[in-house]
Specification:
The chain has 11 helices and 12 strands. It is globular, with a radius of gyration of 19 Å. By secondary structure, it is α+β, with helices and mostly antiparallel strands. It has a single domain, classed as Beta-lactamase (3-Layer(aba) Sandwich). Helix content is about 35%, strand content about 20%. Strands 1, 2, 3, 8, 9, 10, 11 and 12 form an 8-stranded antiparallel β-sheet that branches. A two-stranded antiparallel ribbon has the order 4-7.
C-alpha cells in the first residue's frame, strides 16, 4: 500500500523522533469531504472496524439477538467475564455452546484480562471476536445453514455479509482475504468504508438503527473498560466508534459526520491523539488521556496528531 501522509508524530524533548503515516478521510453531515489525507481510493482490509456491517447482515438474515448480544457481535472485546458471558448467552439462545465456535483461539485482548488469564490455554470464547462468531452461528442456526464452514467466502452467511458490504459502501467486492479470526475479509477503499459507516448511521432501516444503537448504549461491550472506542462513546453522546487491527478506525456522529483512517504501518500508537484532533475538526471536544513519551521515568514529550494542526 502507499505510505500516505504523516498523521502521528512522536516528540521527545521538542524533537520529532518517530512518525506514523497513513490515510484519513473526514466527511461532513452532508457527506462532503471535509478533510482528505493520503490515498482514500485504494483497497484496504478494514478488519474489525466493520463488524457492525457484518452484524447488520446477520440480523437481516434472521439472527435474533438482544441489545447486549448485538453490541458484542460488533465488538473486539477485552475478554472480561461479562464479555464471555454475553457470548455464551448468544450461543445458548441458538441451542449451542462454545464448542461450536470456529474462530481462532486466543487469550483475552486486554492486557489486564490477559494477565488474569494466566497460563490457561487460549480458547475461541476468550478471543476478542467470539461475540461476532457466536452471532454468526446463531444466524446459521436460524437458517439451517452449515455450522462448520460458516467462515468460508462461499458460505451463505458470508455471501449475505458481502451483499451488505456492497449495498452500504456502494462498491463491488473484488478482493477477499482471511481475517485473524478466520472469517472471510472483504477489502474496500477508505472512501467506501466512510460511505458504508455513514449510510449505516443515517439509515432509516430499523435493522441498521438497532445495530448502531446497541453499540452506543453498550460501549463497554463493544471494547472494554478504559479502551479507546469505549471511552469515546462514553464521553461524547451520539458517537459510534470501532477500531480494527492494523491501524483502522471508524467514528461517526448521529448527524452523519464520519471519520475513518488507516495507518500504513498498522500501528495503533497515537490513536487517542488522532481521535481528539479529528473530532475537533467537527467541533467536538473530548478529554482523553494522551500517550506521553518518557525519559528517565518522567514525561519528556508527547505523541501528537501532526497534520490536523494545519486544517483548523
Amino acid at each position: 500500500m502507499k505510505t500516505g501522509e504523516v498523521l502521528i508524530e512522536v516528540v521527545r524533548n521538542e524533537m520529532v523522533e518517530s512518525v506514523h503515516a497513513g490515510h484519513l478521510l473526514i466527511l461532513d453531515a452532508l457527506g462532503n469531504t471535509l478533510l482528505e489525507l493520503g490515498d482514500t481510493d485504494s483497497l484496504i482490509y478494514p478488519r474489525s472496524a466493520v463488524k457492525s456491517l457484518q452484524a447488520a447482515a446477520m440480523v437481516r438474515a434472521g439472527a435474533k439477538l438482544n441489545n447486549q448480544q448485538l453490541a458484542l457481535a460488533c465488538a473486539s472485546h477485552a475478554g472480561s467475564a461479562t464479555h464471555l458471558a454475553v457470548a455464551q448467552s448468544t450461543l445458548a439462545s441458538a441451542g449451542l455452546d462454545e464448542s461450536a465456535l470456529r474462530n481462532t483461539p486466543d487469550k483475552p485482548l486486554d492486557p489486564k484480562e490477559r494477565a488474569a488469564w494466566g497460563d490457561k490455554a487460549p480458547t475461541s470464547l476468550a478471543a476478542n471476536c467470539s461475540g461476532k462468531h457466536a452471532a454468526m452461528l446463531a444466524t446459521c442456526v436460524a437458517n439451517g445453514w452449515n455450522l462448520v464452514d460458516y467462515k468460508k467466502p462461499e458460505h451463505p452467511l458470508q455471501i449475505a455479509i458481502r451483499a451488505e458490504f456492497e449495498s452500504l459502501s456502494g462498491e463491488k467486492i473484488t478482493h477477499v482475504g482471511v481475517d485473524g479470526c478466520g472469517a472471510a475479509l472483504f477489502a474496500i477503499s477508505l472512501k467506501g468504508l466512510a460511505n458504508a459507516i455513514r449510510n449505516l448511521t443515517l439509515s432509516q432501516d430499523p435493522l441498521h438503527q438497532s445495530v448502531v444503537n446497541a453499540c452506543r448504549t453498550n460501549p463497554v461491550l463493544v471494547s472494554g473498560v478504559g479502551r479507546l472506542p469505549t471511552l469515546l462513546m462514553e464521553k461524547a453522546s451520539g458517537l459510534f466508534v470501532k477500531d480494527g487491527a492494523e491501524g483502522v478506525m471508524i467514528i461517526s456522529t448521529a448527524s452523519g459526520e464520519v471519520i475513518v483512517w488507516k495507518m500504513s504501518d498498522g500501528s495503533q500508537r497515537g490513536a487517542s491523539a488522532l481521535a481528539v484532533a479529528t473530532l475537533s475538526q467537527l467541533g467536538i471536544s473530548v478529554d482523553i488521556e494522551r500517550e506521553n513519551v518518557l525519559g528517565d521515568g518522567r514525561v519528556v514529550g508527547e505523541i501528537r496528531a501532526s497534520k490536523l494542526a494545519n486544517h483548523g
